[in-house]
Amino acid sequence: MSAYGACLYLRSETNGESKVHLLCAKSRVALLKALTIPRLELSAALLLAELIVNAEEALDFDCTFHCWSDSSIVLAWIRQPPREFNVFVSNRIAKIQEITKDMTWHHVPTNLNPADVVSRGWQAVSTEKQAGFAWAYTWLRWVTSIGGRLQNANLDYDTRNPILLPKDHPVTKAIIVYYHKKYLHGGSQALLAALRQRYWPIGGRKFVASVINKCVRRFRTKPVTWEHVMGSLPANRVQPNPAFHSTGVDYCGSFYHKTEARNKAPHKCYIAVFVCFSTKAALLEVVQDLTTDSFIAALRRFIAFPGGFQLH
Ligand SMILES: [Zn+2]
């Protein structure tokens, strides 16, 4: 079995800046034995002509069409009168000539022909080429963008409406690999953040991690993440004792305390947090201000609490 395909790109120019987007693509499966290579290529040229007819009807504006083929034979054939060939070839030449009579045909080298992916299959194309086409393929028909809750944010249109990428799809993988290389083999968190500026890969976290794990360069360098060296806990943190036997103290705040009297302005206060070392039980005491006297008053209230204390 073999396949052939055609794709249509739209090139627009505004203020001297041009943009190229893939408009649509179509492929057909053919029996290899039944058709010679030039006949397959001729069928591809006809497919392109038919794609143009459909696009012309759908497009709401005028544009000139340029047709490209990587087959020199086909390009030579369609310049000849159809009657000189057998039925199969002449029928197709006639149709192509009819549809594309006002258009120009050009030659494109096979290695630069994006339709090559359509006909040979994605797996047969080198990763560099895949990455190059990845951006263009995101404009295929299945592309859906999602609207989040950031419509009013001061962000790019692409970030506000990321393109939905299907799970476990070769195109999604190619885009992830492309970004992974672009951002110098970074980790999954950084890669995901970079991707989400433009795309929304479904089940992204897992897929990104699996792509990164397969990266040979990353595996070779084996980056080691830095880890904290944890010290031993002090004895009074790990030995059994009655609650509040060993206690730490700190302040939190400030807070505003509103008195019951209506016309009195709320006044500042703090909270002393007494934490038991061994059980982590906490006792809170309100402190009026940051003076020593206030602290001692809070401490007295704490000591008045039943139990024996050893304060740190
Ligand atoms: Zn890598």
Automatic annotation (TrEMBL):
Gene3D superfamilies, alphabetized: Ribonuclease H-like superfamily/Ribonuclease H
- What Pfam families does the record point to? Integrase_H2C2, Peptidase_A17
User: Where does this protein have coiled-coil stretches?
Assistant: none
Q: Tell me where the signal peptide lies.
A: none
Positions of the Integrase zinc-binding domain: 170-223
Query: Which InterPro entries does this chain map to?
Result: Integrase_H2C2, Retrotrans_Pao, RNaseH_sf
Which named protein is this? Integrase zinc-binding domain-containing protein
State the organism named in the record.
Drosophila suzukii
For this protein's source organism, the top of the classification is:
Eukaryota, Metazoa, Ecdysozoa, Arthropoda, Hexapoda
